[in-house]
């Protein structure tokens, strides 16, 4: 199972958001924040495809 498969499987809760944030921080760190806007846009698109919605409260 690849990293994206694991992320997709775990993306429905806080852990998915935490993993997404960690990946964003790591990408920004490695690029020296030169591509921060593009990384943020990519993160939002991926979260949208996986069904992670930061605007909605979590449902049990």
Automatic annotation (TrEMBL):
Biased composition (Basic and acidic residues): 15-44
Annotated organism of origin: Streptomyces resistomycificus
InterPro entries: Antitoxin_Rv0909/MT0933
Residues covered by region (Disordered): 1-60
Protein name as annotated: Kanamycin biosynthetic protein
């Amino acid at each position: 199972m690849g990293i994206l498969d694991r992320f997709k499987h775990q993306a429905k809760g806080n852990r998915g958001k935490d993993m997404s944030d960690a990946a964003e921080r790591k990408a920004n760190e490695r690029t020296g924040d030169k591509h921060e806007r593009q990384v943020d846009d990519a993160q939002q698109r991926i979260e949208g495809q996986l069904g992670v919605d930061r605007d909605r409260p979590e449902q049990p």
